[in-house]
Write a structure and sequence with these properties.
474 residues, alpha+beta, hpI Integrase, Chain A, 3 domains, 3-stranded antiparallel beta sheet, 13 strands, 43% helix, 10% strand, DNA_brk_join_enz, DNA binding, Tyrosine-type recombinase/integrase
Length: 474
């Protein structure tokens, strides 16, 4: 048992007196593993009784706590017992209402990854795949649990009977095994850094909840010497496309059938206005302000103004989550803008190139009955898999073989990085870029630090100028 010792010495009681020689108190003194302890009593009988209890515990071989100095059994209280699986379900239910659909999935994944470390028996054990599926899709899903099939219910029943008690997490070795399982891939290798930190945070929150339920005295993860790897939030400069590459990619999107032509504007909004994909799918015609067409004095026809800027004004996003994780059963969850309060809007300028693309999109495809710009070919929700497939094929056709094998624009989200990098390199103040991108200034500069071109050379020139007078031979 960790944090305990059997090396105990009980010393003679110290009689404490004031300056007049009158006895004021009695101090019991003892040590555990060399660490001194003391406790003061007003009466001699109280001190003698306490000292006698210490001596008896030491003689009977009771372990003493290094944290309190007293016998371990003195601090033991009867606690409710709960299996890990039952507790994990209770924690998922506790977090469900306030959590976003995406975070609900994160909780289920973290608990699913950690649970194998808490299994007590292999007898009658279902396959690992069946266990993971049952936990992630049903057991740790508050909405779905009661709807599990008979086969899945049997798997969950086996889990309920074959996981250790939460009280087992008072042992550091068990806590370490739990964390190791939660931060590893199925092949035993270490998970991605972001996954490690996310799962560790979720489990730490779960342990706080166990303390609240009085299943544990304290959070065992906080006491563990376990340091997660560092996470880098900086954008990889190699993933950022230049304007020529972006235009080739958009042209390659347009050439694809049947979805490409209606997706050009979708990708263009990310590249030219820096919106997140979940913000773009929610855009409606009422979120767009386009400049008035100008009449050509020679032909008399209406044309796009030469330098006509528009504006995007929006107040929500709709990240994909899956029907089983949203409250209303929709594929996407309607939410406020990231890092902003409910109802708060963001305004982003719409450059002339994007104005032309959006006007052409509206002219050809219009909007759905709800006013949304982007839908599937047959109407309905724009599927994320469709966007990813079209983008992957566009990279194959628009980029060189070497570029296609690199991180260049590998994810759709990299178009947003390209947009924000363009704004910063064009000299737009960081405060304005942060407002358009929906970031705080410090986060913006931390993420895009390596994408600001020319600052290092400018800094070198300033240093060289400052040292010119010192360049004479010594």
């Amino acid at each position: 048992m960790e944090n305990t010792t059997y090396r105990v010495r009980v010393h003679k009681t110290e009689v404490r007196k004031n300056v007049a020689g009158k006895v004021t108190s009695y101090r019991v003194q003892w040590s555990t593993d060399g660490k001194p302890w003391k406790r003061t009593f007003q009466k001699s009988a109280q001190a003698d009784a306490y000292r006698s209890k210490l001596l008896t515990a030491a003689r009977e071989g009771e372990p003493f706590s290094l944290a309190t100095g007293e016998p371990v059994k003195w601090s033991r209280v009867e606690r409710p017992e709960m299996t890990w699986y039952d507790f994990a379900c209770k924690f998922a239910d506790f977090k469900w209402k306030a959590a976003s659909a995406k975070y609900r999935q994160d909780i289920a994944r973290a608990l699913t990854a950690a649970t194998p470390a808490m299994l007590t028996s292999g007898k009658g054990k279902p396959s690992d795949l069946h266990l993971r599926t049952a936990m992630r899709r049903w057991g740790f899903n508050t909405k779905q649990r009661a709807e599990a099939s008979e086969e899945t219910a049997e798997v969950l029943a086996w889990l309920a009977k074959n996981t250790r008690s939460v009280s087992a997490l008072t042992e550091a070795a068990t806590v370490r095994a739990l964390l190791d399982a939660a931060t590893s891939r199925l092949n035993g290798k270490t998970a991605a850094t972001s996954t490690i930190r996310r799962h560790k945070t979720i489990l730490q929150n779960a342990m706080d909840y166990a303390v609240e339920l009085k299943l544990l005295d304290s959070n065992p993860i906080k006491a563990l010497k376990w340091k997660p790897p560092r996470v880098t939030y900086e954008v990889d400069r190699r993933s950022v496309v230049n304007h020529a590459q972006a235009r080739r990619l958009l042209a390659a999107v347009q050439a694809q059938q049947p979805s490409g032509k209606r997706l050009v504007a979708f990708f263009a909004v990310i590249y030219y206005a820096g919106l997140r994909p979940e913000e773009v799918v929610r855009l409606g015609e009422d979120n767009i302000t386009l400049p008035e067409l100008a009449r050509n004095p020679e032909s008399g026809e209406l044309e796009e103004p030469a330098d006509g800027w528009g504006e995007l004004r929006f107040a929500g996003a709709a990240p994909f989550a899956g029907r089983e994780w949203t409250d209303d059963g929709s594929l996407r969850e309607e939410r406020a803008l990231k890092h902003r309060a409910e109802g708060e809007t963001r305004i982003v300028p719409c450059p002339p190139a994007l104005v032309r693309i959006l006007r052409a999109h509206l002219a050809e495809f219009g909007t759905d009955p709800g006013g949304r710009l982007f839908t599937g070919v047959r109407g309905g929700e724009l599927a994320g898999i469709t966007c990813r497939r079209v983008w992957a094929k566009a990279r194959e056709h628009a980029l060189t073989e070497k570029e296609a094998q690199s991180p260049l624009a590998k994810r759709i989200y990299d178009l947003r990085h390209a947009c924000v990098s363009t704004w910063l390199n064009a000299g737009v103040p960081a405060t304005q870029v942060a407002e358009w991108a929906g970031h705080s200034v410090d986060v913006l500069l931390r993420i895009y630090a390596k994408c600001i071109v020319g600052q290092d050379e400018a800094a070198k020139r300033r240093i060289a100028d400052a040292l010119k007078d010192l360049d004479s031979p010594v």
